[in-house]
From TrEMBL:
Entry GO MF terms: ATP hydrolysis activity; ligase activity; ubiquitin-protein transferase activity
GO BP: any one term: sprouting angiogenesis
Organism: Hemiprocne comata
Protein name listed in UniProt: RN213 ligase
UniProt GO cellular component terms: cytosol; membrane; nucleolus
Gene from which the chain derives: Rnf213_0
Keyword terms of this UniProt record: Ligase
Key word Ligase present: yes
Lineage, opening ranks: Eukaryota, Metazoa, Chordata, Craniata, Vertebrata
InterPro entries: RNF213
Highest taxon above the source species: Eukaryota
Keyword field contains Manganese: no
Amino acid sequence: MNSPCQPLPTFDEVLLCTPQTTAEQVGLFLRRCLIPCSRGEKIYTMLYADELSYDVSCRTEELFQHLQHCNSAYRLLILCNSEREHSYIPSVFSQYKVHMIPQRSLAEIQRYLQHHYRVAQPSRSAASVFKDNMCVGIVSSKKAGVGK
């Protein structure tokens, strides 16, 4: 958020982990992050890494240990659910744990995201269903099974 005009991360910089995420997917992601190249100063992020299966988590740790020596200037964030802090990945990387406190207000964060996710030219796209021509939106419910 310090550079409002800088683009948001691209698909190759973020891995959204689920229990179905494979070791191959994590391996490709870690290689992009940890093998030095001339791609600039990208920040790679694994979201919900605590949801990886035990086997994939073990293989992730092994590959990380092997590749981290290739590049000492990597930028990797691993975000996990605090309620699953005792699962494999959060435990293995606990020595690097940083408790994050938002440095900006919710309103500032929302304005920043609106700047990046608003469709400039209204068109016949999915953005027309979200408020203010946003190209993304979150639909949630406190009740299970309400069709959202």
